[in-house]
Amino acid sequence: MAIGSLHAAEKGNHMKTLNTIVLCTLLLCLSSAAHAIRIKDIASLEGVRDNQLVGYGLVVGLNGSGDSDQAKIQIQSVVNLLERMGITTSVNDVKVKNVAAVMVTATLPPFSKQGNRLDVLVSSMGDAKSIAGGTLIMTPLKGADNQVYAVAQGSVLTNSFAFGGQGASAQKNHPTAGRVPNGALVERELPNTLAGKSVLHLNLETADFTTASRIVAAVNEKFKADVATSRDSGSVTLTIPEAYANRTVEFVAALETLEVKPDVQAKVVLNERTGTIVMGESVRISTVAVTHGSLSLVIKETPKVSQPAPFSKTGETKVVPRTDLKVEEENRRLMVMPEGASIGDVVRALNLLGVTPRDLISILQAVKAAGALQAELSII
Prior knowledge:
This protein is an alpha+beta fold. It has helices at about 1-35, 40, 75-85, 210-225, 250-255, 345-350, 355-370; strands at about 35-40, 45, 50-60, 100-110, 115-125, 135-140, 150-155, 160-165, 170, 175-185, 200-205, 230, 235-240, 260, 265-270, 275-280, 285, 290, 295-300, 305, 320, 325-330, 335, 375, 375-380. The strands form nine sheets. A six-stranded antiparallel β-barrel has the order 3-4-5-10-7-6. A four-stranded antiparallel β-sheet has the order 2-11-13-12.
């Protein structure tokens, strides 16, 4: 019975070991595959981009929280609006507190069609206290060429409030800026930048010669022809194959799904204000010795008062100064990091020194100054 139990235990341990090996193998495969990124996530076609739109409008229906009479701009805008509607009035006759002058902005995606809807951002221009609950009046949105591409109108959502009186006030979030979901209608379409082209240009988000070379190799292998060539580190020229003539969309769709492993420059990003440190996996260091310690000096003044006994006819009160001095110096070991150490080795070594993120920033700056950090040091 004991022998059978022993064999069962050994078999169970063997299965556990086998499962562990299989799991580690899968994790290694997944980690290696995770480095491959789709081309559509690291590059974009030249000419296929968003366009910014802007317009000036009015938000009406506010509960006394609009622009004051000192702003003036909303009064002139109301007069102009009424005149376009056939109502003649004077600037001196208009006094409103439920109207706010706003700037309206939106982003027009590529290949947007007439009738598509866009989200718009509404921001107060004057001294309005809040635009919550207001309605944006029809506002033309223009592009950089001064052409109207969309028209916005609708209820403004701010997800905020602002109330108050002479003695107290309460506010939540930002009440002078809000959004109109699906508040803009596209009226003019952008020209199709891909129509009739036989050559396309792919622009990398981050210029890199290695990444561009890998994209060229992946594209040519996919289409079994010299379809791609690299002009420089930031772009790749694509010649549409004859098999995809007049089928540019299908060619781009097949192109975007290809996966490549982008290469990035070794960089360490430091933010001294927040103590944030970000280091890439390709960061390496030369042989360097690092020690870190801090000297703490505490000086405490505790005056001691000496006074005569109660009802004493002689003596006087004296203040005797007393100073407590304490000096502490942390005992840190000298840590030697060998040449070619990876980022994991660097982090483990510095953790053994017990450094904080802000101390680590100072150490990395000193290592860089010593010429031992083989990476770009970026301080933001």
